[in-house]
Amino acid sequence: MRKKGTFEGDVYYPSNDVINQANVREFDKLYQMSIENRDGFWAEQANELEWYKKWDKVLDDSKKPFYKWFTGAKTNIVQNAIDRHLKTWRRNKIAIIWEGEPGDFRTFSYHALNREVCKFSNVLKSMGVRKGEIVTIYMPQIPELVIAMLACAKIGAAHSVVYGGFSVEALAERIEDANSKVLITADGGFRRGKPTNLKGIANEAIKRSPTIEVCICVKRTGEECFMENDRDFWYHDLMGLPIANAKCDTEVMDAEDMLFILYTSGTTGRPKGQVHTHGGYGVFTSTTHRMVFDIKDDDRWWCAADPGWITGHSYIVYGPLINGTTIMMYEGAPNHPYPNRWWQMIEKYGITVLYTSPTAIRGLMRFGDAWPARHDISSLRLLGSVGEPINPEAWKWYYKVIGNEKCPIMDTWWQTETGGFMITPLPITPLKPGSATKPFFGNEVAVVDDKGKEVATGEEGILVIKNPWPGMARTIYGDEKLFVDTYWKDFKKQGWYKTGDSARIDKDGYVWVIGRIDDVIKVSGYRLGTAEIESALVSHPDVSEAAAIALPHELKGNAIHSYVILIAGKAGSKELAEELKTHVANEMGPIAKPEDVIFTDSLPKTRSGKIMRRVLKARALGQDEGDLSTLED
Ligand code: WTA
Prior knowledge:
- The protein is of the alpha/beta class.
- Helices cover 30% and strands 23% of the residues.
- The chain has a seven-stranded mixed sheet with strand order 7-6-19-18-20-21-22, with helices on both faces.
- Strand 18, helix 11 (310-322) and strand 19 (326-330) form a beta-alpha-beta unit.
- The structure holds 5'-O-[(S)-ethoxy(hydroxy)phosphoryl]adenosine.
């Protein structure tokens, strides 16, 4: 009997209180069953949801790696995220608690959320949005963002949410790839006490990507912004028209129909639109959310990510709403106006589960223990972490100071491509700080060398997933070949999915994710591609070639460092370095701003002309440069 969670050596054992109330109380047997009968396990989870028509087949693997889940089934994710709750007492349960950075707040019951979603669905229809087309959403973290996503889904259109911190070129590129005719945005949002200028950026992006015919703009900040006649409409004007009727039928979709695309950075070139579906994604996000975060009806769940990234899609919006959960959303910076902002909100709203990133934890930790100590945050019963490996120091602070030594930390490993948690503890799992522990039900992983041979226990190698799962991305939008080449080619013989991460597995079977082995950089947990940063640099008239690498950073996990070759006749200077940094921030967004710009005459390249970033990195860190036999000269 453990009354309190305790450490034995390096292993943390949860208390009996945690174990006795857990949704899942036994792991090994159920895991074994889920591996032996994967289809059975997922069918059982799918049966927790409502369907217009159930599936003929749980998994169709006849066209590997283009797996299909719940084929023949009819559903719409909104059927489960809203409609079914309206038939129960949850109709009047709070769906969303939202607080703006200036301190304003709003709440929506499931009834109210449904009303707003229906109204906006009718608005979108009146604008000519049809089933199957992709609507781009570029918004701050306000309730209308969730309403817009759900309205698209409800009428069978797919959404492509572009993170509100991205800038002109990133937005334009994504609009164009998705061929969107409709853009939903806002005049801005509040960040560190200042209004952002989203509409200004949207206007610039529309100039570069001429597919947009209609732009719907939410008035959030009230700042002056340019509205083009006959193209731009205020959200509140449209929602006041008779067309914005509060009744709207939910479109019946195939389980495999596209729910959204979400762009993510990968090894090469342009961002890739990961395609997720109504059926499998809904089953996967709600199951993982319910089991890993032990969701109960009286929980107040706060996933403090931005809805513009996969974490927000899966665990602010879809998973939690399907589970009928009360979700918390906050618009602004964690330390505005003071570093107690989060703790103040946890106290004010009685938040029970907090899910955030190691970067956010490190950022708040540096302000000291006194800020959380000012608040009663004892309502918390579980904590979560995502986005990058959590360092022991941050883990301990989170556990002690925020969780008061009673909340286990769910360190969840997953990706945009996986749709939801793949390697994660449950509340009952003994924890090792820094390890995401073991694969979730139905999943088997391995750490292998480049030939697919498992490496020895404790050794570093490539992390692969050995099986399909319902939340997996179905393809890269418009580029099936790239999908196969990126994830399924290297271990084609075995049929494994290549994650792009390196990891090791210890003697107890615990997985320790180390980091990316490709050209993806994780800055503050945000995912960026070296190729995108380089192309932003090269778009400056003075730059001829550029390379970007990641170097360790205390707060951000990684920071971007860039190397630049200028065009003939231009000389590097401090001013130009600053100008280039700002240029990248303007094109891509502030998160992509390089830490420094180093001017150079040459870059290490292979004979085929590929920049050898690992050589740049080794040099910068003063490490061994490794095998240089492929270096050009
Ligand atoms: C990293 C975010 C260690 C990893 C959900 C992965 C993690 C990439 C963890 C995906 C974790 C995510 N521990 N590393 N718990 N969670 N990562 O697509 O490198 O933005 O491949 O999805 O984040 O980033 P993405």
